[in-house]
Amino acid sequence: MLEEAPTTTTTTVPVPEVAEDGFEVRAVYSRETKIVQISPEQTIGEVKEVIAKATGCSSKQMKLMFKGLLAAPNKPELDAILVKATGLKKKAKILVVGAKEEDLEMVSNADKISSTVAFMAESSAMTATKKWCDEKEHKKIIEKGPPEDVMLGYRPGQEALPEGSFTGVLIQGKKGRLQIKPEELAVVVHYNDRSQHIPFSSISNVKSEEIPGYEQYHIVGLKVSQNRYVFIYWVPAQYISALKGAIIGFGF
Questions:
Q1: Kind of pairing, strands 166-171 and 174-181?
Q2: Measured between alpha carbons, how far is residue 121 from residues 113, 124, 209, 227 in Å?
Q3: How confident is the model at residue 20 (pLDDT cuts 50, 70, 90)?
Q4: From CA 88, how far away is CA 205, in angstroms rounded?
Q5: Torsion of Cα atoms, 168 then 199 then 26 then 88, to 10°
Q6: Which of 21-30, 35-44, 74-83, 178-187 reaches the highest mean pLDDT?
Q7: β-pairing, 166-171 with 228-236?
Q8: Could you point out which of 21, 53, 169, 182 has its C-alpha 20 to 30 Å from the C-alpha of 242?
Q9: Residue 97, strand partner residues
Q10: Range with the poorest average pLDDT among 30-34, 89-93, 167-171, 200-204
Q11: What is the pTM of this model?
């Protein structure tokens, strides 16, 4: 089945004191492309506000990518950079990852629930009885150790998603590569003989667990049905937050 092409919507967004040399760029968010006008003298922080107005994506949790990381919630120093220093030009495509204000409110309410004593007690009980690394099928894979070409992992620390693929990972126990493609709203799993697209919409949850003895690496589970996970082994710890954010939709 062919995927529906992203919808392009031309949006005129007023911006303060746009210079005569201002130009249009394409902001791609949630399968839609918005055309917005920016100026070389604007800061990235100001561009975030322009894009937020056009897309509804909250500027507080917005991640922008253009030939690498352009803006991220935990990197306020990027907001002060001028557009003219980024290489952005007319018709450039900016990938926008983040959540809308109403979604953030829902997450905030969920966080309040998850902080209750009853919820934490239930969560702790589930964790105590359902450690993946204690299960035979996972132990058998982990005991072989990390692949020779595993990516460098470390903690503590958080990084944006790597450019290209996650290499040196095992997917369902098989050697492969993993790509997170927010612009296509999909996870792409590459094996030696085939590739598999998993739409974000089919993933109801993303869980991760440190690998004992290799705490700089995680097992990541993509929940694709009520009782089925796609397991990825040896994912570097510093990318876990970005990976979960991109798939679930709250950005890094």
A1: antiparallel
A2: 12, 5, 19, 23
A3: low
A4: 34
A5: -10
A6: 35-44
A7: antiparallel
A8: 53
A9: 63
A10: 30-34
A11: 0.51
Distance between CA 169 and CA 233 in Å, rounded? Answer: 6
Q: Is residue 42 over pLDDT 70? A: yes
Q: Strand 93-97: give its sheet, edge to edge.
A: 7-10, 32-38, 23-29, 93-97, 63-65, 69-71
C-alpha count within 13 angstroms, C-beta hemisphere, residue 181? 17
DSSP string, the chain: -PPPPPEEEE-----TT--TT-EEEEEEETTEEEEEEE-TTSBHHHHHHHHHHHH-B-GGG-EEESSSEEE-TT-GGGGGSBGGGTT--TT-EEEEE--BHHHHHHHHHHHHHHTSHHHHHHHHHHHHH--GGGSHHHHHHHTT---TTPPP--SS---PPPSS-EEEEEETTEEEEEEEEGGGTEEEEE-SS-EEEEEGGG--EEEEEEETTEEEEEEEEEEEETTEEEEEEEEEGGGHHHHHHHHHT---
Q: Structure tokens of 80? A: 């002060």
The token pair at 73 is: 């919630």
User: How many Cα atoms are found within 13 Å in the side-chain-facing hemisphere of 86?
Assistant: 29
Contact between 51 and 96 under an 8 Å Cβ cutoff? The reply is yes
pLDDT tens digits, residue range 106-136? 445 544 544 454 445 544 544 555 688 889 9
The two three-digit tokens of residue 184, written as one number: 């296509």
